[in-house]
Amino acid sequence: MPRASNPSLKKLASAPTNSPEAPPKPPEKPSPMAQASVAESAKASGGALGPDEKTFAARLVHWQKSKGRHDFPWSTPDPYKVWISEIMLQQTQAATVLPYFQRFMDALPDLKSLMNAPEDDVLALWSGLGYYSRARNIWKSGQLIKSQMGGAFPASAAQITELPGVGRSTANAIAAFCFGEATPIMDGNAQRGFCRLWGISTPVDSSAGKNELWGLAERLMPETDTAAYTQAVMDFGATLCKPKNPDCPLCPFQAECAAKARGVVNQLPAKGKAKKAKPSRQERWLCLFWGDKALLKKNEAESGVWRGLLIFPGFEAARLAGAPEPAAHDGRSMVIEHEFSHYSLQASVDAMDWSPASADEALELAEALEARWEPVENLARLPLPSPVTKALQKLAPRALAETLARDLSEAGESSAGSQAKKKKAIGSGRAGKQKDGAAKKPGRNNAAE
Ligand code: SF4
To answer: 280-427: which CATH architecture?
Structure first.
């Protein structure tokens, strides 16, 4: 996984440390009547009912100013940058996203460059970040903006939702950040924080729960300072009211938090549907090397997370196409386990070095498998799923493994690469070098859309 090499990025990547200090005073004093009402209700419910909705936004923004996250490279009113970051941050932590975002922006710095980029370039820039449908939707959105929206990024939440892969919460976030629209978000961070603060126990995956939360979010949304408030909601859930071990002693709302008062912090947000056990899929792949080249094929499946990426040929298909039998493989094999959202993959990979009788024989095999021989020195610039990259690194012959490790390491060190490198890469129809293996964890924006 690429790491942020820039010291300021590293600083950003580690979430801010919250130091204990007195909670900020609310800018408005609740009326004595309101205070009495809250106190009565809190007493009846065994603690607190949640913060006053009217002063919540101002208090949260106040907290964010001193304790939130600032200076992300996507902290800008540029809708293109905000949009790309919002999509990357779905199901992915900010620290993981940072180097990918930098690399993406170096290669495709604006909407125009995205609209003119081939899909393969966008996929290559995404390589290692996972959830590749996000990259495909970004590319499709670029084409849609180019052909149907006059080449300009849509300027309202309603229009932004027309882009593929953009739901209500993401569109609202972009509109709040870039256009000052008072459109609330309801991502995983917002869900968690709101459910705990106001003690909402309706399952968040039910229609009733969604309606309740969106209703609350609408009431809380301020008319002004929409960008600061939206970032504050995200930061509150990502850095303070975390899924596990929230930092309650540092929370500016701890005295009013309903979940804390009732001792149900770890039970909220509630989910109604039990998680189904995921089916597992077994596969067997052949990782064949011919000199300094590896045999890979583009995954042309009409659907699926790895559509459009380069993968190994299936073992059985390769055997039927006349590939050498790896019974006498070099003892190089491994098992890959990878979790997709809908299934678990277990793939055994057998590797071998092949010496065909002629170059024609090697090319015929590639043709029969609709595959291609890719020089190892190119691999770091191609759209490869992270398990395939890992297998190549582990199973390549020693000399090639060193080349591969060096290329991937350089890709990681430069994160995004220099502007010159990037232009050269895109100009030749390839994206900048990349590195795989990004962690997929709830990010700031695993939107409940
Ligand atoms: S007191 Fe704890 S559980 Fe309640 S909102 Fe604050 S951080 Fe979350």
So the answer is: Alpha-Beta Complex (3.90)
Which range has the worst mean pLDDT, 76-80, 239-243, 269-273, 340-344? 340-344
Does 246 sit in the ligand 1 pocket, CB within 6 Å?
yes
Please state whether 61 falls in left (phi above 0), alpha (psi between -120 and 50) or beta: alpha
- In CATH, what number does 9-267 get? 1.10.340.30
Which tokens sit at 297?
């094929």
pLDDT band at residue 42, thresholds of 50, 70 and 90?
A: very low
* Both structure tokens of 263: 């001792």
DSSP state letters, 148-205: HSTTS---SHHHHTTSTT--HHHHHHHHHHHH--------HHHHHHHHHHTT--S-TT
Write the single-letter amino acid at 224: T
The whole model's pTM is what?
A: 0.69
48 lines ligand 1 (CB under 6 A): no
Sequence-distant (≥ 6) Cβ neighbours of residue 131 within 8 angstroms: 90, 91, 92, 305, 341, 440
Atom of ligand 1 nearest to the CA of 250: 7
